[in-house]
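Note to self: keep these together.
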Amino acid sequence: MEFDIREATAADFEAIWPIFHEVVSAGDTYGYDRDTDKSEAEELWMKSPQKTFVLEKSGEILGTYYIKPNHHGPGAHVCNCGYMVASRARGQGIASEMCRHSQMLALDLGFLAMQFNFVASSNTGAVRLWTKLGFMTVGRLPAAFKHPSLGYVDALVMYKRLKADF
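Structure:
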C-alpha cells in the first residue's frame, strides 16, 4: 500500500482534529482529557512537539504522529512520539509505517532512543505492535490508567534503543 508521510502544516490541523477528537474522546488509549477542545488539541499535537507529521493515502490524511524530546538536559537524547490513526483506516499498517518513519527521523534528529511513557496495558494492539517493532516494556505503573469501561488498568513504559552502540 502506498503512503506518503510528510511534515504537517498548520493548515493540516483541520484534517488532524477529527482523528485526534475521535481517539481522545474514546478515552481508552491516550492520557489526554476526553473533553480536550480543538484549541488545546492544536497546542498539544501541533505546537508543543518538536515536529508533527501526517500520513496520507491518495491525498487524504489517515494518520498523524509527533516527535519531541522525552526530557530536556541529560535526557534529551531520548525522544517520545505519539501516533493516531483514523478508525476507518485501522488495520492497514499505518501505525507501523509511522513508527518506522519516526525511528528513522529520530536518528536524523540526533536521538539515540525512543520511549513511550504511558501505554495503556489494555491497548493490546499497540502493545503488540510496539513489541513487534523492537520496543521493550521497561516499566509497569499499576492501575495508572483509568479506562472508561475496564476501570483502572496498568500503564506501560516502553523503550527502544535506536543505535546498537549506545
